[in-house]
Amino acid sequence: MAVQLKKPILIGGVGLSFLLWMGSMLQDTLMGVGEWGIPSAIALGTGLWLWQSRKTPPTAPKVLPKIDQKVVEAEIHKVQTILEKIQEEDSDTDPSYLQSQLNSLWENLNRDSLNLVITGGKNVGKTSLKTTLDLPSHHLSETSPLYQNDSNLETIQTTALTSEVVIFVVNGDITDSEYQTLQQWSQQQQKLLVVFNKQDQYSPEEQAIIYQQLKTRLTPLISEKNIITSTASPNPIKVRKVKADNSHEEWEETPSPEVETLQTRLNTILTEERLTLLYQSTWRKAQQLKLEAKTILNEIRRQRALPYIEQYQWIAAGTAFANPVSSLDLLATVAINTQLIVDLGKIYQQTFSFSQAQTVAGTLGKQMVQLGLVEFSTQAVTGILKTNFVTYIAGGTVQGLSAAYLTRIAGLSLIEYFQEQEINDTTQVNPNRLQAKLQKVFQNNQRTALLKSLVRQGKERLSLQG
Asked: Keyword Methyltransferase: yes or no (predicted)?
């Protein structure tokens, strides 16, 4: 994919960089260059924004939306839009299997029988509880134990989140892993009941303490009335009978299960909240389909975006190599990254004006400095050049290869950021999220092998003699 160079942002910025360099040759010292060049850039309105401090708007607390029919329909429509875009942008990709699943979601809203899942760690009494409960009009299943095998965690989670109600069984105070699971499922609008089972293993005083601990830790996530005690399979107890002649006999009896509170609560939920539960489960299924569809679309767009990053990184390298004044080279890099942002935005349907793209480029540049990427790239490239090439050209070569690396990191960070955006999202770029993506991409792309590959390619493109 060839990048068209007849673009005012790119040509204007690169041209300005060289004009300033030519003007700087009239100055006696590099300090003079800085004093002449930077004010000129500011006057032309292309440099000041990089150093402007911007206040990050406060992050609003996450509020879980109320899931009703309108919300479910909107989510299904989003999935449909993504599927249509897949077909529009790549006719070779067939998302018909996702379309079939999407169509079936409407049927999910009309079910009379609801799905309930019993889950929890090992030896907490899941099977006994399943056997004891009486839910003839609904489907009750049991998962394998949680936290025993990492490979089954995803399967259990899928089973739980596609059901209407999850009965999470514990036999004591919850662990950190259990809390994190409950927190995650709660944030996905999953109806949860936490059941403190096997109470008979504790004294009455211990039972009260554990139950209070559960309520204290879980009430922010789960309603107190959905934190329930039970004994699904009581242990046998010894019974002694004293006779008239003071002799006695002993035997063991198994008490009746104590699940009435749980049974009553389930009956109430399944009767009074049936429609809400169906809305919530359908919404979660639509979200999962959206994730699968968006993964396909993102891969299509990534393959279209990578050639742009590849070519712009070498445009940046060539410009930096040809311009020996590092303080002025910044303008060319900014112009290149601004144009890259505009082009990537078109691929991901995130439309940017010139000033918006300029602001994003400035944000990226400032974050790169704060994260130490500029220093790292210069030192890493210098070290590789010294180690691998007989002829070592310090100035323009290091600047050029560093510019290529930083442009690549910027482009990959933008891809990561755009991939998480909603389709047709027109909101402004979030600097904090962009910085998080930048840091993640940098951490994944600071391997020596990758940098050596970049230097080898740069050796040919910048006409280095090895």
From this structure: no
314 CA to centre of own chain: 30
Q: What is the pLDDT of residue 81?
A: 94
Pairing, β 227-229 against β 139-142: unpaired
**Most distant CA atoms of the chain, gap in Å:** 123
Out of 43-52, 155-164, 233-242, pick the least confident. Answer: 43-52
Quick: pLDDT tens for 401-440. Answer: 888 888 999 999 999 999 988 877 666 788 888 889 998 9
Handedness of CA 57, 62, 63, 65 (dihedral sign): positive
The angle at the Cα of 430, spanning 425 to 431, to the nearest 5 degrees, equals 150
d(CA 80, CA 100): 11
For residue 105, what is the DSSP state?
A: H
Domain ranges of the chain: 8-51+298-461, 113-272
Question: Strand, coil or helix: what is 228?
Answer: strand
CATH number for 113-272: choose from 2.60.40.290, 3.40.50.800, 1.10.287.370, 3.40.50.300: 3.40.50.300
Contact of 160 with 143, CB cutoff 8 Å:
yes
pTM of the predicted model as reported, rounded to 2 decimal places: 0.77
Q: Tokens 């790292």, residue?
A: 376
pLDDT tier, 18 (very low <50, low <70, confident <90, very high otherwise): very low
**What does residue 147 show for φ and ψ, rounded to 5 degrees?**
65, 15
| Residue 85: closest CA among 427, 430, 422, 357 | 422
**pLDDT tens per residue across span 234-260:** 877 777 777 777 777 776 777 888 999
